[in-house]
Amino acid sequence: MSQNADEYEALTATLLSFYNFFRHQFEHIIKPRLIKFRAMTEKERALLPWYEAHTGELKQCIEVNRGFTELLSTSIANDWGVAGTSLDWHPAGPREFEITSTTLLQLMREWSDEGQAEREVAFTRIISELEELYPDEPSRQSIRILNPSCGLGRLVMELVIRGFWTQGNEISYHMLLASNFILNHSQFPHSHSIFPFLSRSSHLVKRKYQTRGITIPDVAPFAVLSELKEKTPSIAYEELMSITAGSFLELYGPNKPSDTLNDPAAIELKNSSKDSFDVVVTNFFLDTASNIIEYVRAINHVLKNGGRWINFGPLLWHFEGDYNVSYINREDNVSIPDIKKGLELSREDLLELIKNMGFDFVKHESDIESTYCKDIKLLGSFVFKCEYWVCIKVR
Can you tell me the distance from the alpha carbon of 178 to that of 176, in angstroms, rounded to the nearest whole number? Predict the structure, then answer.
């Protein structure tokens, strides 16, 4: 896999954030506890006789995480042809380490038994709709599905298992590395143990819940697809799955003056994507837009006439508080300032926009409650009220 200098820095910083994640966890979990313990009086320590032992348990859990994240980083570095060792990689900053922490929670959501209930809220609706639309399993391999922001690839795999040709797209290196590891380096179910809840100290019923481990993956993709291939040799399951790396808008949206693609494969993908998909599936994705018009336009751009757009997710606009200024080129090549914030539409306005941009709604449910990366042992968690719809591209 070839990268330019910026891509190489981003990739290796991500690799290093996995490789050195144990240092970040020690600094932010163990060190504060050690400082606090030393600051307590002997009488205070006596009131918490379990404190030191629990700190020791946290250390042991961090070491287990270390084994997993180091293996992930070295395995993927080898797969992707990254030269040198971790000493040669670009330094990882606080943001990279924080995303590594959330990636462990994402692994829980997508690839553990504990995440099953959360997955079912969205996945069941999406999969059932597709199975109803395309009941003939042998012909599903000709149905092209695009899943932008596919995360760790679980939904992509679930659709492939059901015989659909499915392409995921993901911009985050953390997601791409972790999904690559699960999809290609996990031959057996429950082959890896991780402790994703170590950084959460609030809303606990019992301290042992903080050191609760999970095993991943709950199913081994390679084994599942191999078994399916034996049962149905006429379907080339191994050819139905792909995941592209990069911005959804850059890879799949209409051409713009500001386009910066220079990789021949990416340019070919962009040129061939227009009117080429039967279905676009968006799951917890729309509210990541800073300009929702561009997202809807890109979805319309890649769908065939009569194609379906299936969406599930909330409207918690990610860039609502982002006032950072950047510069964009208009169609007349004039450079003007822009900010991420500013197009946070209400549900009513969003639905109107979608209709005005060439879609008809055939199904729509609102206020479907769902959590995201929830720790089921916590005393409380944020609950989203999500939208589910099926649209048809009519123009």
Answer: 6
